[in-house]
Amino acid sequence: MINQDARFLVVIPTFNEADNISRIVPKVLEQDLRIEVLVVDDDSPDGTGRLADDLSGQFERIHVLHRSGKQGIGPAYLEGFQWGLERNYTLFFEMDADFSHRPDAIPRFIKKAAAFDVVLGSRYVEGRVTVIKWPMRRLLVSYFGSRYAQFVTRLPVRDATGGFNCWHRKVLEDLDFSRIESNGYTFQIELKLRAWRKGFTLTEIPIVFEERESGESKMSKKIVREAIWKLWKLRALDLVGRL
């Protein structure tokens, strides 16, 4: 059971999300009065950081971290998590800014977190693929990429690369952030793998993932290349007990 006095932090990394940030943040806050939002902006040229500051001035439950340059999604989440740990939040959420992750799913994460240490939003669970508006090529790359990650790492989840997740404070406290090397989408796999290997309980809930409404996707060939070799490095570290 999650206490009524618990505090939840939704960490939203941003880079050029001016079309979305002013819409997504209020929708997130509507889901539960215990929710606060931390926008981690990588010095977006389109002014996302300034818009986030404006929101922070309007709502006391909105906070903003400004970082210099485009440093990547992995470091953004780690910096956001560290910020939240220092301020005693109970649950931590990872969430995209572009409405690919639907805010109204958050209450289901909170409910499930009463029984599990980590709750993962899955696009490939219960025998279904719940992705909307993706071209077939991208869908196949994502689906088989997750299966490939599962095969290499032995991670017992269907959607290893998913980025809509909920973490109990104790999980993040027990992870050594300085040892997490991945950026890009391999970061999602590494974080889950390290938590699982430490004995924390993971579960998946089905979510609907919809292609972004505005802006450009952050997926690139560089991210895919990183994922391919990084997975085997994680597997090797795991085999020798150095993960």
Automatic annotation (TrEMBL):
Q: Name one GO molecular function term.
A: dolichyl-phosphate beta-D-mannosyltransferase activity
SUPFAM superfamilies in UniProt: Nucleotide-diphospho-sugar transferases (SSF53448)
Where in this chain does the record put each Glycosyltransferase 2-like domain? 10-175
| Any Gene Ontology CC annotation | membrane
Q: Which InterPro entries match?
A: DPM1-like (IPR039528), Glyco_trans_2-like (IPR001173), Nucleotide-diphossugar_trans (IPR029044)
Enumerate the UniProt keywords alphabetically: Glycosyltransferase, Transferase
Q: Name one Pfam family in it.
A: Glycos_transf_2
Q: Its Gene Ontology biological processes?
A: glycolipid biosynthetic process
Q: Can you tell me which family this protein belongs to?
A: Belongs to the glycosyltransferase 2 family.
Q: What is this protein called?
A: Glycosyltransferase 2-like domain-containing protein
- Organism name: marine metagenome
